[in-house]
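TASK: fixed-backbone design
INPUT:
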């Protein structure tokens, strides 16, 4: 974990912030609805964002996995990804197979009316 007390003052306790991040991920609540027991929601959000950007969460995951693997708590033979069933989005069905239609020059898309010119009579 990053050192506590970098530039700008002292940081809140890492444990409290991590518990706030885990609570938010587990429940799916908005950041602003985070209970007070985790401290300021903005502190938890900013720390989570900072740690995501600098790779701290990746290092934490690798360390936890390494410890669990050394202790024999991970059965790597059970980890697999099966891609035999892949669904497309519901709007992907029935899409046009040809090139997209480009409207004629001087016509508004989806109409037969010509486009308005901003330099003609009645221009604002």
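OUTPUT:
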């Amino acid at each position: 974990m990053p050192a506590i007390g970098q530039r700008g003052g002292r940081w809140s306790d890492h444990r409290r912030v991590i518990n706030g991040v885990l609570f938010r991920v587990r429940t799916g609540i908005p950041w602003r609805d985070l209970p007070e027991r985790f401290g300021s929601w903005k502190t938890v959000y900013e720390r989570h964002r900072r740690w995501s950007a600098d790779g701290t969460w990746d290092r934490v995951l690798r360390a936890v996995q390494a410890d669990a693997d050394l202790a024999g708590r991970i059965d790597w033979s059970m980890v697999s990804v099966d891609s035999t069933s892949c669904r497309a989005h519901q709007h992907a069905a029935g899409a046009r197979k040809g090139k997209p239609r480009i409207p004629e020059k001087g016509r508004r898309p989806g109409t037969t009316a010509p486009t308005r010119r901003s330099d003609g009579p009645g221009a604002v």
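COMMENT: The radius of gyration is 27 Å.
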